[in-house]
Amino acid sequence: MNNNRYRRSLLATTVIGGAALAMAATPSFAQSADQATEVGEIVVTGSRIARQDYRSTSPIVTVSAQDFQATGAVTIDSLINDLPQFTPSISSTSNNPSNGGQANINLRNLGSNRTLVLMNGRRVVPSNSDGTVDVNLIPTALIKNVEVISGGASAAYGSDALAGVANFILDENFSGVQFDAQYGETDRSDGKTESYSITVGGNFDNDRGNMVLSLGRSTRDVIYNAAREFSAVSGPSATSPLGSTIFDSNNLPSQAAVAAYFNSPNLPETGAFGFNDDGSLFSYTGKLNVKNPAGAGPEYTAPGADYTFNTGPLNYLQLPLERYNVYGGGRYKINDNAEVYANALFTQYTADTELAASPASAGTGFRVPSTNPFITADLRALLNTRANPNGSFALNKRFTSLGGRHSTEEYNIYQITAGVRGRVPQSEWTYDVYGSYGRVSNTTTQTGNASRSSVQRLLDDRFGGAGGVVNGVAVAPLCAGGFDPFGVTNLSAECIAYIGRSARNSTVTEQRVVEASLQGKAFDLPAGEVRVALGAQYRQDDFAFGADSSLAQSNVVTPHLGANGQPDGGNIGGSEIAGFNPTPSLAGGTNSKELFIEALVPLLSDLPFVEQLDLNLGYRYADYSTAGGTQAYRAELDWTVAGGLRARGGYSRSVRAPSIGELFATPSTGFPSIGRPSTGGTGGDPCDIRSSFRQASNPSAAAVRQLCLAQGVSSQAIDRYTYANNQVESRTGGNPDLIEETSDSWSVGLVYQSQFASPWLSGFSASIDYYNIEISDAIGSINASDALTGCFNVTGENPTFDASNFYCQLLRRDPLSGNIVGAVENQANLGMVKTSGIDLQADWAFNIADIGGGDWGRLKFNTVVSWLENYEDNVIEGGIFTDRTGTIDSDFGKTFPEWKALSSVTWASGPFSVGARWRRVGEITVANTTEVLPSIDYFDLNGSWSVNDTVALRAGVNNLTDEQPNVFDPGVQANTDPSTYDVLGRRYYVGLTAKF
Predict the structure, then answer these.
(1) Which of 21, 118, 447, 451 is packed most tightly, with the most Cβ within 10 A?
(2) Whole-angstrom Cα distance, residue 947 to residue 364?
(3) Which residues make Cβ contacts (< 8 Å) with residue 840, sequence separation at least 6?
(4) What are phi and psi of 230, to 5 degrees?
């Protein structure tokens, strides 16, 4: 039999040399037959068959614990997100949008819920109703390496593995005592990070058993947007602490009066008007008569032709974190046929987010009766020019007196696994039976919310809540001083208590898994032995979210009543809370019963140009309590050609069953981004007269106008309508009729490992892989931005601009303001997602002495390059595909650079090593515009010194040249995409490892 099958060959190509830093493992090379016989059986991620050749038929990349140390980060997602195959997801810089301080990973930009996370080849308890895993819970001190495979892997692991798998492998055979400490901070002396861990382990009973215990603590300090020049002025919002109104389109003030007041003959009366502290008014359109509050600098108002408030300074740029990890594991060999094992993981951490003070506008705003005592003389004069001067009017307000919207997340996570494994007596087969239970408990405490009903009571009170005298009888105040909404409001402590609300939510996620598997040699063929793995799994997931009663409360929507008890314009009611998005409670569970089988079949061997040809087959049947029966399967070829050249490729059918949240989530309120209007792009509200849709040069401008009228923009406002915000109100919810997603993926690639004896070439290896993934019946929601582009025919799906078009029916406008106040974003099985591209990896290492350069140590080079050939999706089955290749959007997670790369060089000599790393994000076009963001390059330096056999020191500088992120308007957060671009700047770290 060909001994090439018993080589320990490259894993895809090799370990990714640090994401290639100092101390990274050297590449693995072919061993002799004698060496090979000493190699134990190994299970490679993506397969359940143990084998002696350490290689995968799927594209795979591996990073090590040393690679993680060399990044200077305290959470593992920092390293994972540097890999070109990943699109950075929710991370340490995700404040809004955020996921409660979690760290999620996203392979191929297909979504965190389509990237399966494993720990030692077993599932990790999810932290969210959509099944995504928070990698913050993984004990970084024990991570030995992380193996990532790309492409569908449901046949091996079941649901969720549509994009691929990230397998975090822990060191469960640790022996000795190890202490590790690290400290880091930025060049601006902020964002301090610390981590400490101690690990103790060893064998016992003549090496029949091993136990390991690891304790860790890590912290990360907050950084505010105000601390960086690019983000200090960010998050422009039309909802200001000064307060504003948009007059009802059926009760507008006189245009002549408006024009005269602002000395601007063409100023529309349909725009937004704000309230200065001195009692005067200002116009959002053109920034006319804007007077910032006393003591506020010019940055109080965001830049731009029209007025917006700068919400950015007090938002977090880096989220604070305090985390504790405990991990204990052990194994004991009872006899030659049975080994029991168990491990327990416990993680506790807190993380905070901070947003600007609570806004209330449009659907979450208020009505002010004409009798309100705080109405200023200038405002009263305009109100009196309306057709109905006694009608109420809308109020939009940001409640700075309540402070920022602060959320504290407290997580308690544990997962316990126990099992028995060994060899089936009198056979070459092995078995593994285990059970695991995991639980994530999260308590969220929110402050800074405002009670809309309490604010409305203050507005409706004849004394504005301040109390007074009626017919000689004193009327007690609702709160001391009442509520004056016109200008910056300084509330008394009593009024803050009257309208302010804190909220406390609880979330519990549980997962139970029982699995039994067998694997071993089935029989021999001329080309080698046929190996088979088979087994069964039962899995149950439960999720319960208990919303604070105030967040879950929705008041009856009724007409606003004036002092005479009659409707006086507009409605009140709806969500009780203004601030954090109202969210109702949710509880549900799913389970599955699954059978799987896999076979490794050697087809040919020892032929010209066919040293070995293997076929890998896999099949899984799963019966889900929600989606019913599903099938996943795969077929892959591994062809060892000759001279170190290997070809690999295959096809995989994978499935993802709908999650608890996707199925059962009750309707909740959100505020998705739609971008900003411009004459050259398609962002913002198409009905806005500043948008490209409404320009005379657009041949469809008249049709757009008619569609806007049909949707609810009034005839009085249509030719002067503007929308100052970049977000709209939406309603999201689950769908119990969802079916499973299905993906078809295939890949083909070449792997080369040098067979040359020359010291220049012997350490060279490379791989190149093409991947293609298509997901059908993709579960998701049509976001407001896509609904607008579909409704207004950007994608060619509404050529007649018909208001009854499917997309248009997802949008609802307020008939009084014309603003979108109800975009429907419920979950559904939509169209398809398609992506394809090429991954290239190359490694080269040599001893300087071997090439005649003297005893100067060893050099290693590594590069990983990813080229995105195509990424497109359609939001409904049969709909037009949107090509997102090479674009970035203001919606989180929609970042698709064509080119990404990670390269490194490391020099090591004796106890010393020095490394450099180059991270590159290619140029990218801002979606729906012609703006192109240039490529950006980050350079990192690192070094280590093994002082003696016990102590090693390390240090590094990340973002050496202090590159600032690309900025674009409106950006995902802080004028940029903080997941894609480095927002912290230059930073340093030092660390120590002592092992005894």
Answers:
(1) 21
(2) 62
(3) 766, 767, 768, 863, 864, 865, 866, 867
(4) -70, -20
The least confident of 238-247, 437-446, 669-678 is 669-678
Percent of the chain exceeding pLDDT 90 equals 73
Q: What are phi and psi of 411, to 5 degrees?
A: -110, 135
Q: Which long-range contacts (CB under 8 A, 24 or more apart) does 914-918 make?
A: 914/22, 914/941, 914/942, 914/943, 915/18, 915/20, 915/21, 915/22, 915/24, 915/70, 915/941, 915/942, 915/943, 916/940, 916/941, 916/942, 917/18, 917/19, 917/20, 917/21, 917/70, 917/941, 917/942
Q: What is the mean pLDDT of the chain?
A: 90
d(C-alpha 219, C-alpha 193), whole Å:
6
CB within 8 Å of 788: residues ≥ 6 apart? 674, 685, 686, 794, 807, 811
Provide the residue type at 84 as one letter.
Answer: P
What burial letters (b/e) apply to 684-700, b meaning 16+ CB within 10 Å?
Answer: bbbbbbbbbbbeeeeee
Mark out the alpha helices in 500-558 (DSSP H runs): 549-552
Q: How far apart are CA 726 and CA 460, in angstroms?
A: 30
Cα 652 to Cα 425: distance, rounded to the nearest angstrom:
34
* Token representation of residue 781: 């929601």
Strand 912-921 versus strand 924-926 pairing type: unpaired
Give yes or no for a contact between 928 and 954, defined as CB atoms under 8 angstroms apart: no
608 class by beta-carbon count within 10 Å (0-12 exposed, 13-18 middle, 19+ buried): exposed
Which pLDDT belongs to residue 78?
86
Q: Which residues contact 116 (CB under 8 A, 6 or more apart)?
A: 123, 153, 157, 160, 161, 164, 165, 166
615-627: average pLDDT: 94
Q: Is beta strand 338-355 parallel, antiparallel or unpaired with respect to 393-395?
A: unpaired
226-252 pLDDT per residue, tens = 999 999 999 999 999 999 999 999 999
The answer to whether the beta carbons of residues 200 and 215 sit under 8 Å apart is: no
Residue keyed to tokens 């973002």: 959
Lookup: tokens for 434 = 């285990």
Token pair 């915000």 in the structure block, residue: 725
The pTM assigned to this predicted structure is 0.89
556: nearest Cα among 570, 580, 568, 572 = 572
The pLDDT value given to residue 21: 33
* Band of pLDDT at residue 26, cut at 50, 70 and 90: very low
pLDDT at 314 over 50: yes
- For 928, residues 6+ apart whose C-beta sits below 8 A from its C-beta are 675, 681, 682, 683, 789, 794, 889
What is the structure's pLDDT at 38?
Answer: 31
β-pairing verdict for 936-946 and 912-921: antiparallel
The conformation of residue 86, written as its DSSP 8-state character, comes to B
Closest-CA residue to 61 (of 123, 150, 168) = 150
- For 348-376, the DSSP string reads EEEEEEEESSPEE-GGG-EEE-TT-TT--
